[in-house]
Amino acid sequence: MTDQTITSVSRESRIFKPSAEFKNQANLGSFESYRRLYSESVNAPDKFWDKQAKKFLSWRKPFSSVLKWKAPHAKWFSGGQLNVAENCVDRHLGTARANKAAIIFEGEPGDTRTITYKQLHREVCQFAHVLESLGLKKGDRAAIYMPMIPEAAVAMLACARIGAIHTVIFGGFSSEAIKDRVNDCQAKLIITADGGWRRGKVIELKSNVDRAITGTPTVQSVVVFKRTGSPVTMTPGRDLWWHDLVAGASTTHKAKAFESETPLFILYTSGSTGKPKGVLHTSAGYLLGTAITSHYVFDLKETDVYWCTADIGWITGHSYVVYGPLSNGATVLMYEGAPNQPEPDRFWQIIDKHSVSIFYTAPTAIRAFMRWGDEYVKKHSLASLRLLGSVGEPINPEAWMWYHNLIGKKRCPIVDTWWQTETGAIMVTPIPGVTPTKPGSCTLPFFGVVPKVLDEHGNEVPKNAGGKLFLTQPWPSMLRTLWNDDDRFKKQYWNEIPGLYFCGDGARKDKDGYLWVVGRIDDVLNVSGHRIGTAEIESALVSHPAVAEAAAVGRPDELKGQSLVVFVTLKGTHTASEELKEALRAHVGKEIGSLAKPDQVRFAAGLPKTRSGKIMRRLLKELATSGEIKGDTSTLEDFAVISALKQDEE
Ligand code: WTA
Q1: CATH: 3.40.50.980, 3.90.850.10, 3.30.70.1350, 3.40.50.300. Which one for 110-256?
Q2: In this structure, which residue's CA is closest to atom 13 in ligand 1?
């Protein structure tokens, strides 16, 4: 195909200006300051990042250069030395934050714990000693496979403290996934728990590790935190209880300083094909990216209780549960379990219970709340909230408005933050109190970020036309490479237009320069010669009152090139019928135009999603095309969804 441009069909035109009340207290506060700082950040990046690195980080040894850039390899803050854990914990101790809550923990069964910065420091120090006593050294890899409990953060920070590289494996992954990741990075150690609570049941983490470990020759020890008290098998000489190890460990630990580019972690992210990619992030640049975005995008104040619902197994959990907020000395809420345990109002109950003021979640969760019904929200006050965030997928305007009205009570700004595992930190986002927002748009670039929507020749497409989204300048928290696979790193991200970072998403810029992500380029649909992003068709469907969620895919069609098949789940009170199918086709026709009317509407009980909540359109496309799913399903969240989908068809 030669024409790679994308036809954009969205007609969203609502706009929400920041309130004077929010603006007056905001960390940034005026559009002029945003413009000035942004322009400095892209026109004189060395000067800008020099200043920010000194403002947001504590250095043991000052850096001598800001950036050495030889595309696609970056070295940020060369010559400088710091310790990431010291930046997240120790440096708050000499301040009024010492006895402030660093982590407020809520377990799924309702148990809570508050850990102050002083206490967090003691725990990180003790665990750093434990890691050293187990022979973990600078540059060694440790896998962390834990529930959402404070010890997961302690384990990450303790690795950082001694210069070891952590790789967190999401607690919902199977033993196969553990094995692949541990072997790819040759981890010496696995840190896990007996189990974690999820929907009232114990997820048996330790037994998954046991199954994996028969095929992981590099692992020497397994540290097990006791969370649920469920029975586990401990292999003598290899498996050790966390509480036994820390019992004798000193509560102070002298942290070494490490070079800026010291690897901090590897995080595996699934590619559309083949084995997962081990995205490598390093110390100073990554920490700066997460620290500065946490400050401006979440407008953090000493009095905030900040809650990001992401699991620490994802980049959002790394950057916005652990490194970003803690380096800012914030109070972070951590919740272990499911949003509907025991009832679908658990999140709202937690917000009231702990007076959460900043809430950051994903569109997939928001759509689930919408489906469960407004009554669960209305039972709670939510008066403590002042700012809302969204991440992970394009948020469809319908879900944005629901979030704004029901959760934010029309009072809280919404930051729709676009970024990726690879970018390390938020790249495109409104700044609350500053940027007028439009439902469904992640708006404008953060400092130092230069997003461009380009055609296949590298030319910028006209306003409102769709194209591929590139980042054209290096940024501090960018991935440095893929672990053990620099060739794949170059091919995957830097080959589309040599020297520019291609993120894999399609997008358009509107007349105000606002970005609208229209979906993954691999998912773009070709309908009657128009290339249309999945997000726009799905948004149109979700704006129908009966629809909870929708996924649009293309099926090869001799006549049209591709015919459009949509999978739809319905809200509680609605039932599937031929009339509703027709009504939905008509609705899309009205919202977008007849070119986008689906050829087939299929009702489903659930859509296949990755464990981080992204719809797996690839599987639906296979199903729509061949009636079968043979492709890789290892990242699928719920296998029952697939058999239900097949039955629906029969
Ligand atoms: C998608 C999550 C639209 C996008 C931090 C990106 C989004 C991929 C947004 C990265 C958003 C994330 N609007 N799309 N606000 N946020 N995405 O690596 O396709 O899990 O490329 O990182 O999610 O997913 P990842």
Answers
A1: 3.40.50.980
A2: 394
